[in-house]
Structure formats: structure tokens, C-alpha cells
Specification:
Elements: H1 2-12, H2 19-57, H3 64-93, H4 100-127, H5 133-145, H6 150-170, H7 183-229, E1 237-238, H8 239-251, E2 260-268, H9 270-296, E3 301-306, E4 309-315, H10 319-333, E5 340-346, H11 355-367, E6 377-379, H12 382-403, E7 407-416, E8 422-433, E9 437-439, H13 441-450, H14 454-474, E10 482-486, H15 488-493, H16 496-506, E11 514-519, H17 529-539, E12 543-549, H18 555-561, E13 566-569, H19 583-596, E14 600-604, H20 609-618, E15 622-624, H21 634-642
Parallel strand pairs: 1-3, 5-6, 8-10, 10-11, 11-12, 12-13, 13-14, 14-15
Antiparallel strand pairs: 2-4, 2-5, 3-4, 7-8, 7-15, 8-9
The protein binds ligand C2E and calcium ion (2 copies).
Ligand C2E binds near residues 571, 604, 605 and 607.
Amino acid sequence: MKKVMKWLTDGLGFEKQSKYVDDYFFRANMRASIYMSVVVIVIEIWMIIRLTNTIFANNLQGNFMHYFEKYYINYIVLLASGILMLSYSQAYIRGKTNNHILGQCIKWVFTFVCIYFGIKVSINDYSKGEQILTFLTMELFSMCLLTWKPITAFILSGGSYLYFFLRMNEMVAVNTGEVGTTLATQINFLTMWISTMMVCVANYNNTRLQAQKDENLEQINAYLSKISVEDELTGIHNMVYFRSEGEKVLHYVVTDKDNLLFLFFDIENFKSYNEKYGFQAGNELLIKTAHMIDEAFTGSLVSRFSDDHFVVLTSVDGAQNKIGQLSGEIKKLQKEVHLELKCGAYKPTEDKADISQACDRARFACNSIKKHYDRTLRFYDKSLEDKFQLKQYIVNNIDTAIENGYIKVFYQPVVNTADGSICGLEALARWQDPNYGLLPPGAFIDILEEYRQIYKLDMCMVEAVCKDYRESVDSGKPFVPVSLNFSRLDFELCDIVSYLCETVEKYNVPKEFIDVEITESALTDQQDFLPNAIKNLRSFGYKVWLDDFGSGYSSLNVLKDYFFDVLKIDMKFLTGFDKNEKTRPILENIVDLTKQLNMMSLTEGVETKSQFDFLANIGCNRAQGYLFSKPLPLEELRKKINSGELKISKEYLK
Ligand code: C2E
Ligand code: CA
Ligand code: CA
């Protein structure tokens, strides 16, 4: 029933149309009106000229009033309505007017006039036995060229056809001499009306479908252009918009460039907030923050780059105050999770005005105060510039460094607590750079991880260690097992396990001589591939160590879920060794735990004799630290061994 109703209402044109469709109809009608009115104007002028000619040719000027009432008035009214229609539709198409009500009124007047004169002329013609072509032409013109709703067309054309038919029916037909129309005329007339109606309905439906199609396209277009510059979640501008507009400001705007300031905002602990309260609450926080920043920096270029990262291009004046206020407002939004707004600021200098670099620098300044409690703002300065340059250098030069052999392996001994002899070495990377000198891993590991390049370094370390083994053994020197540090990303970015197997085979290194250290934090990310990789490594015969145990993650769960051969106790346990009474029982308990879990224990960061004695006493199997040696190149380590300062475990001496 509902369907039938809908079909009927839609079919008759009762359905509510959108403004777009209404406008489309109006425009289509105005365009058709131009053709129609031009034709009407031309015909009427021609009719006037023709009649005037006839009057003068036949010297009928005396009867002018008679002709005026009978013909001229018709022509003039039609001509006037044509001119009116043409003027309005022209003005509308040219965008000079948009008054739809006036337009509709003129269209109705024009239509009425056309049909009225169509009927009048044709009745006159019919009475003389001529065709009723004027009526039909006017019907065709006004009903089919213009677009009417089916119901309006039905009433308008039905009414005019009926009126015309009734008038014809009162008259004497010239061909029969009787009052009324013949059956053939009636059938022809009805067929003509049905045809007119069909054209009207078809015209209406075509126009409506076209309008709806256009409307959909227009909406899609509008949506696409909106999302290309707008951040979907917060409604403020996105990165694409920021970059293109920022570029213009930097390069084309002749404003006071010294006064420009790039700000990079980040909400500290947003990730924890998201995890604790869910995505919905996280999104709401982002929306609020976006609007707060947008309001604080009204008139500036404000955007959201990604996650909780917002970037603003503003002027230096007053910026610091605004940032202070924003920071206070963000704090008010926090619940149990501590929220802090961090902001990095970069003032572009004339020669380094590049939008990407400016954003990167502001972000770099922002990252530099992460985890610095209560520090909200950091300006990008010379010291950050140096660090930034180094970071760029590392990312851009890791491949060259590997190719040119700048990556060196330093070895740090691991000793057996029973006799203090070396039973292993940890391979630690160093970057011997021609420009920067010897770079410690702290200067490049995090950067390589951030840029997902770390696997290159770790593969290089695998090869270098295997090569060292081969060269030592080939030259008859003793060697001990080496542990390599693998990043969690190695398992994701390359097949590090296969690479290790191939390299070990290439240099013919016994598998007992290679161990793999994986840090505890790598295992808390809940990634599927890591447990499998650990299983594989162990099944191939490598020992897997858990590095940095106790450095602040869910350590015990990690022990429950995975099996490790060696537990490497983080050096932070030894930091308060002499002062903190709790250190000893904690270490003792961890060592006990390793025994129960069938693991070896190793404590790193051993710096004093008393620490070592204590560890030996509680049964910790191995120790590593500056007490024995700092990480050193293999040759220097050998010198220490040769001088008797360090000794190798007997099992590794042939
Ligand atoms: P880690 O694996 O925990 O390495 C131990 C770090 O502690 C080394 O720093 C070592 O020099 C230092 N250390 C050793 N004994 C003592 C001590 O008694 N006192 C103190 N204060 N420090 C000691 P290093 O060589 O700077 O390495 C830092 C970190 O860089 C390493 O921590 C490791 O996570 C990472 N790393 C080093 N080489 C590589 C590598 O080849 N690949 C990967 N993925 N990471 C590496
Ligand atoms: Ca390690
Ligand atoms: Ca460690």
C-alpha cells in the first residue's frame, strides 16, 4: 500500500523535492522560456506586420478599430507576454535576478496567454472550417517545452483541452453542417491530449532524474572538496590544507615574515587516555582540544596533522600567553590520566623557509620536552638545531655508513660469577663517523627505529660478528659466544631470523656462539609475529635472552607467556645498591625466580666489587659491567686478555 502511495505521489509530482531539484526545474524552465518567447515574439511581430500590410493594401484603414479589437489586441498581448517572459528568463540566466516567485508568476501568465490565444484563434479558425493548429501549437509550446509537474500538466492541459472541446461541440461543424464534433474528431482530440500528457510526464521525469543525478554529483563533489581540506574528526583544517596555505604565507605573503611562528602541539599521555576511556572519549578529547586551539588562535592557520598532533602558523605576538592558557584548559579536561599539553615552537629564518622543515622543527622541539613534567613550551634553538641536523644526518646516511664500514662492533664481556672469567660478549654498535666522530648507540638507535631503518644496522651487526668469529678462529684465536641486540622492528621489517641463519651458515659459525637479546618492551606490544619468531630462533638452536628485565614493563607476564634461556636483569636494580635496602632482597628474589623457571640469570651494569660479590653470593650466574670492561673493539679486548687483565672461561680455550 505504502509503495502504491509512493508511486502515485511521485508519479503525479507531489513528492517533496530538494531545493537543488527545485532550482534545477526552474532553471530548465527559464531556458526553455527563452526559445519559446523568442518564437512567440517573432511570430507576433510577423502577424502584426502582415495584418498591417493587408489593411493598407486593401485600404481598410477605416475599419482599424474592428481589426484592433479582433486581431491586434491578441497579437499585442501575446507579444507583450513574450517580451516579459524573455526579459525575465534572460535576466535570470545571466544571474541578474533570482526571484523565483516573480519568475513563476510570469511563466504562468505567459502560459495562460498562449493557451488562451491558442483557443481563441483556433475557435475562430474552426468556425471557418480550418484546422485547429494554433491551439495545438500553443499547447505543445506551453505544456511540453516548459516542464510541469504531472498533476499541474493534467489540470492545465486537461482543462484547456476540455474547454476547447466543449466550445467546439457547441459549434456547427463546417464539413457536416451539424452541431457538435464527429467521433473521428473526438478520438483525434483525445489522442492528441493523451500524447501531450505523455510528453509532459516524460519530460518531467527526465528532468527530475537528471536533477537528482546532478545533485548527487554535486554533493559528492562538495564532500570531496571538503574532506580534502578538512579534518574529518575535528572539523578544523587538515595537513594538506595547512601545507598549501602555509606555503603561500611563507612565499607569497609580503607580511612581516620575522613575526611568523610555527607551533606543534601534542597531548602527553593521550594514548593512555584513549586506552583507559576508549576511542569515543579519546575522540571527544581531540575535538575539544582542536576547538580550543582554533579559538585561541583565531585568524591563524590551525590544523590537525594526525592523532593528537596539531600545527598552527601564527604570529609571535601573544603566542606564549595563548599557549599558557591552552595548557591550563587541557589540564582541566584530565580525569585520572594526567594530561599535559606540549608545544614546540619554530620561528622560520629567511633562508630556511620551507614548510615541511618548519613543521618538522617545531615537532622536534615539541618532542624534546616530552616526559619533562610541567614543561609546556620549547623554542627551537641552536642546541636543538644541532640535534636535528644529526637526526637528519643519521637517517640520510645509514646506508652509506654501512657501505663504508663506519658501523663498528664493540664488545662488552659477560663474566661467569663463579670465577670472573669471560663466558660471553655483548655486541654493541658504534658509528665511527668522519664528521661527527664516534657516535654511541644512544645517538642513532632510537632515530633508526623511528624511521624504521634499524633492521639495516642489525643485519650489519650480524654479518660483522660472524665475520669476527671466522677471522678469529681461522687465525687460531679463541672466541666466546656473542649476544646480539635485535629490535622488535627487525622481525616486522625483514626476515631477520632467515638472515641470521644464512649468515651463520655463510661464515660457518656454530649456533651456540650466537645469542639473541630481545628487550622486554618489545614483547608488550602484543604482536603475533614475535612469539613465533622467538620459537623459531630457539628451534633453530639459538639462545634467546630477555634484555632489560624490570625496566618498567609488565615483566612477570612476559615470563609467563614466553620462554627465555637467559634473563638479563636491568642495570637500574643496581643504581641504589649501597643506599636502597630494598635492592638486595629484590635482586635475590628475581634470581630465585630464574632458577625456578630454569633460566640463567645475568645482571648488567655491575660497577663495583661489592655488587659483584653480592651477585655471586645470591647465585646470579653471570655479570656484565664497567667493573670488568666497557664495550671495546675486539682488538683492544684481546690486548686486555693477553695482558692478563681479563681471562677467558676455560671451556672456550682450546
Ligand atoms: P643494552 O642492550 O641494555 O646495552 C647495555 C648498555 O649499557 C650499553 O650501552 C653499555 O655500554 C652500557 N653499560 C654496560 N655496562 C655498564 C655499566 O657498568 N654502567 C653503565 N652505566 N652502563 C653500562 P650502549 O653500548 O650505549 O648501548 C645502549 C643501548 O643501545 C643498548 O642497551 C641497546 O639497547 C642498544 N644497542 C646497542 N647496540 C645495538 C645494536 O646493534 N642493535 C640494536 N637493536 N640495539 C643496540
Ligand atoms: Ca642488550
Ligand atoms: Ca640491557
